[in-house]
Design brief:
This protein has about 325 residues and is α/β, with parallel strands linked by helices. It folds into two domains: about 5-175 and about 215-240, NAD(P)-binding Rossmann-like Domain (Rossmann fold), CATH 3.40.50; about 175-210 and about 245-275 and about 295-310, UDP-galactose 4-epimerase, domain 1 (Alpha-Beta Complex). It is built from eleven helices and 13 strands. It has helices at about 10-25, 45, 65, 85-90, 90-110, 145-165, 190-195, 215-230, 250-260, 285-290, 300-310; strands at about 5, 25-30, 50-55, 75, 115-120, 165-170, 175, 200-205, 210-215, 235-240, 245, 265-270, 280. Strands 3-2-1-4-5-6-10 form a seven-stranded parallel sheet, with helices on both faces. Strands 7, 9, 11 and 13 form a four-stranded mixed sheet that branches. Helix 1 links the parallel strand 1 (about 5) and strand 2 (about 25-30). Helix 5 (about 90-110) packs parallel to helix 6, helix 7 packs parallel to helix 9 and helix 7 (about 190-195) packs across helix 11. The radius of gyration is 19 Å and the shape is globular. The chain binds uridine-diphosphate-N-acetylglucosamine.
């Protein structure tokens, strides 16, 4: 691997991916608008001469002028990642996730990128008729966020067909770990950990019986890297999911015991609009094409994430 571009490089997953790619010897250009990304996340990358940071928005019309090189692989992670925010502000999500993706694909076309790896989402499946959900299942968006990811996927496929770019679509399930922000629009695990550490009530939305396949960020990064390298991944759509299914209520209890918190209580809020009931992914395609299997158990991942929260402030 030689020269790669990472959009969303200062974000939760993007910054871990940048660190990993640099450790593999790649030369990395990163783009971030710092809407939710943080400079702190890039502390070690910025000290590396093989890393270049471009502070800009992927939607900017100046993207092509600012990014003049050719890249072997573009990892496209920049996006609004919140289902909740998409229900409140669908136009913002469309601009970032659809218009932004189109702009990045134009860059890939004009600068002759070989492969584009898109970080998509399990949200595209909606509430499937059978579980675990595999990549052939019908798409059924329950939120504007899910619709934006389906659109981004379709544009990637179209660019593959029209211009010969090698598309790879990764449908991430629920990713957690250090550097995840903790605003109301962040992933549930960082919200719960932050609440538990501050002795605040744990806010379970709905009955808490909705289930998720949480996957630790290091595993997601490894899968994303494998997807950029494997010949077999070309043109494929692949679930990247954790192996343990757990309900939100069970996660709340697991967080309380990982933090050692006895005074926080669990409170129930109304169910979220656009929320999925069960999001459990089949991993057989990732195993077959990428030889990928998650390595970090939920217990270990939770412990590492709690340790990070104890040391760092997880601002929105
Ligand atoms: C998450 C990701 C999304 C990703 C998708 C893949 C975030 C913010 N969202 O969506 O980017 O594409 O997985 O499937 O990282 N909940 C509570 N209390 C809270 C917050 C959330 O009970 O305070 C519940 C929600 O109602 C939901 C579950 O926890 O049922 C998960 O919510 P969330 O972490 O926002 O993730 P998803 O919507 O699954």
């Amino acid at each position: 691997m030689t020269s790669v571009l990472v959009t969303g490089c200062a974000g939760f997953i993007g910054s871990h991916l940048v660190d990993f790619l640099l450790s593999k010897g790649a030369t990395v250009t990163g783009i971030d608008n710092f809407r939710t990304g943080k400079r702190n996340n890039l502390a070690s990358a910025l000290a590396n001469p093989r890393f270049v940071l471009l502070e800009m928005d992927i939607c900017d019309s100046s993207l092509l002028q600012r990014v003049a090189e050719t890249y072997d692989t573009i990892f496209h992670l920049a996006a609004v990642s919140s289902v909740k925010l998409s229900v409140e502000n669908p136009a913002l999500v469309h601009r970032n996730n659809v218009d932004g993706t189109l702009n990045v694909l134009e860059l890939a076309r004009i600068r002759d990128a070989k492969r584009v790896v898109l970080s998509s989402s399990a949200a595209v499946y909606g509430n499937p008729s059978s579980l675990p959900v595999n990549e052939e299942s019908p798409l059924n968006p329950q939120s504007p966020y899910a619709a934006s990811k389906i659109s981004a996927e379709e544009y990637l496929v179209a660019y593959g067909n029209s211009y010969g770019i090698e598309p790879v679509i990764l449908r991430y399930f629920n990713v957690y770990g250090p550097r995840q922000t903790c605003s109301e629009y962040s992933g549930v695990l960082s919200i719960f950990i932050n609440q538990a550490l501050n002795s605040e009530p744990i806010t379970v939305e709905g009955d808490g019986k909705q289930t998720r396949n949480f996957i630790y960020v290091d595993d997601v990064v490894r899968a994303t890297y494998l997807a950029s390298e494997a010949n077999r991944a070309r043109g494929e759509t692949i679930n990247i999911s954790g192996s343990e299914a757990i309900s939100v209520l069970q996660v709340a209890q697991a967080v309380l015991s990982a933090v050692g918190q006895t005074s926080s209580r669990i409170v129930h809020l109304p169910e979220r609009k656009g929320d999925l009931r069960d999001s459990i992914g089949s991993m057989s395609k990732a195993r077959r094409l990428l030889r990928f299997k998650p390595q970090v158990s939920l217990n270990d991942g939770l412990r590492r994430t709690v340790e990070w929260h104890q040391l760092e402030s997880c601002s929105p």
